[in-house]
Design goal:
The protein has about 550 residues and is an alpha/beta fold. Helix content is about 30%, strand content about 15%. It has an eight-stranded parallel beta barrel with strand order 8-9-10-13-14-15-16-18, surrounded by four helices. A seven-stranded mixed beta sheet has the order 1-7-5-6-4-2-3. Strands 11-12 form a two-stranded antiparallel sheet. The termini are far apart.
């Protein structure tokens, strides 16, 4: 081979390698090799056979490196709100990986230990992050609002920072899901935050007993979905399901012991979930009234009304208030649900004629123009005052709020909107016009009623995912967008009307996809990018369900 043909071969080899390197990724922006990833061996230049002075200088031979395409958002439920892509290998745990807490962020030790256990990596405590590590940092001045977080994947490590502990925790849930769905946390920056501050599940544990272990499993599932509120409806006509020291005579079997409840609450606190107790009154008190039949509401003919307590009797208030105060101490969260729905005295054509004792009590307390609705409203306000005295914010069902009477419901009671089927039903916008804060439990979409009575059907989650938003408070119509800030969020509700229709395991399986759809729409109410079918497939991948 002569001198000229040898030079041509070298140039061809160099050109070939250069083009190959620039073409990977489509735009010629070369990345760096992932740690521990071998690069392609460099081409070898044939040895020259002529003196150096007469041989053309060959260009340096490049060492090709791996090129990464721009990253894409991780596949999670709920989906992340914002992802800034970058080029790089992303992050996955390796042999030397650990979870660490940034200096001054020692309060995040529980979140760090939990994540380390889930990822099967070491936990090094408050220490400097190394390549391969995940670092958790609390930054109270960080923008984004409560429960928001920033997750940065760069240089072979992940950093999660947030203005509060809940935000950091939700960042760890994103890491966990990203690894399961895609095998790695993608390179780049995630900035994520919830659309609504209240996101959760409501459980009727009065009509059907659920074990503490079953409830704890629901909490763990909720936490991975970034849900933060569990409502426990534990008193109703059928049973009263939590141990009581003030009134042990009202407690049913089986029930949760206080020790079990403390265990549930402790787990919920670690998972950044508030447990909201509910003692519904003045209706739905059948279990209490079986032990105190003298307090049951009776009409003018002496006929008792199911579950309704006689609110004209002072002893009725005393027993309910005893229970409210007792359980306010057991549940340390910020809310207490006081019910107020479906009071049977207000479901008849003429409450004053049917229940003259209630009408007399209303006039004595609130004046000659007052009626039975006013007495019920006063009852609502008085129970709200009791829980307020225990440093709790009261919640109540929408059909316990009446307008235009001598007494008005206190403005600081949160309206839990569930139905528009009651007598004299008020449109959701009426509550909003009054300036009230509302939580969405729309029975058209968010009710899972055991046995499917009264034309309820078990929701699959599809309609929630495709149609519902927090603005859809009643039926399928949305209230105007201008009220969005007054709608604090929502909960998916399990009601056990026909308790034996499903086992606890069947309930857990039945609510799995609806709960995921609710989590998505409360975190981001916009139209989801995934189809329902792809969303279900992702849920299966994330949970193995």
């Amino acid at each position: 081979m002569n001198r000229h043909s040898t030079g041509g071969l070298v140039a061809a080899v160099v050109l070939s390698l250069t083009v190959a390197g620039c073409g990977n990724g489509g735009d010629g922006d070369l990345g760096t090799a992932a740690p521990g990833t071998a690069t392609t061996p460099a081409a070898t230049t044939p040895k020259a056979t002529t003196p150096r002075a007469t041989t053309p200088e060959a260009s340096p031979t490049p060492s090709p490196t791996r090129t990464y395409p721009l990253s894409t958002p991780p596949r999670t439920i709920p989906s992340v709100r914002e992802h800034e892509p970058a080029r790089g290998p992303g992050w996955r745990p390796g042999g030397g990986s650990a979870v660490v807490v940034a200096k001054g962020s020692g309060v995040l030790a529980d979140e760090a230990r939990l994540l380390a256990g889930e990822l099967k990596t070491a936990y090094r405590g408050e220490a400097a992050a190394r390549t391969g590590d995940i670092e958790l940092a609390l930054n109270t001045g960080q923008a984004g609002g409560p429960e928001s977080y920033t997750l940065t994947t760069r240089g072979g490590r992940v950093r999660i920072s947030a203005p509060d502990q809940a935000g950091v925790f939700y960042g760890t849930r994103t890491v966990k899901q990203a690894l399961r769905s895609g095998g790695a946390v993608p390179e780049g920056v995630i900035r994520d935050r919830p659309a609504k501050p209240q996101r959760g599940l409501n459980l009727d544990i009065a009509r059907k007993h659920f074990s503490a272990a079953w409830i704890e499993d629901r909490l763990r599932d909720m936490a991975d979905l970034k849900l933060n509120q569990l409502g426990l409806h534990f008193s109703d006509d059928q049973a009263f399901r939590i141990e009581s020291s003030s009134h042990p005579e009202v407690v049913s079997r089986p029930h949760l012991t206080k020790a079990e409840v403390r265990r549930i609450v402790a787990l919920a606190n670690r998972l950044h979930i508030s447990v909201v107790p509910e003692i519904d009154s003045p209706g739905h008190l059948g279990a209490v009234l079986r032990a105190h039949p003298q307090l049951q509401l009776r009409n003018v003919q002496g006929t008792p009304r199911q579950g309704a307590i006689d609110i004209s009797k002072p002893e009725s208030a005393r027993i309910v208030d005893d229970l409210l105060r007792e359980y306010a101490d057991l549940f340390p969260g910020p809310w207490f649900h006081i019910g107020a729905d479906e009071y049977q005295a207000l479901t008849v054509r003429d409450p004053a004629a049917s229940y003259p004792q209630l009408a007399r009590a209303a006039r004595q307390k609130y004046g000659q123009g007052a009626g039975v609705e006013d007495l019920a409203t006063g009852w609502l306000n008085d129970r709200a005052a009791v829980v307020s005295g225990e440093k709790k914010k009261a919640k109540a069902w929408n059909d316990g709020f009446f307008a235009g009477g001598a007494v008005n419901p206190h403005k600081d009671i949160e309206v839990e909107y569930w139905t528009g089927k009651e007598i004299g039903a008020r449109e959701p916008v009426e509550y909003l016009r009054e300036g009230r804060q509302v939580v969405n439990l729309n029975d058209e979409y968010l009710y899972y009623v055991l046995g499917e009575p009264n034309q309820f059907t078990y929701p699959t989650g599809r309609r929630i995912y495709q149609e519902w938003t927090p603005l859809v408070l009643r039926g399928s119509s949305a209230v105007p967008e201008r009220y969005a800030d007054q709608i604090l969020g929502g909960r998916f509700a399990v009601w056990c009307d026909l308790a034996n229709s499903q086992t606890a395991d069947q309930v857990a399986n039945g609510i799995r996809m609806p709960l995921r759809a609710v989590a998505q729409k409360l975190w981001d109410p916009a139209r989801p990018q995934l189809t329902w079918e792809d969303f279900r497939a992702l849920a299966d991948r994330l949970t193995g369900g």
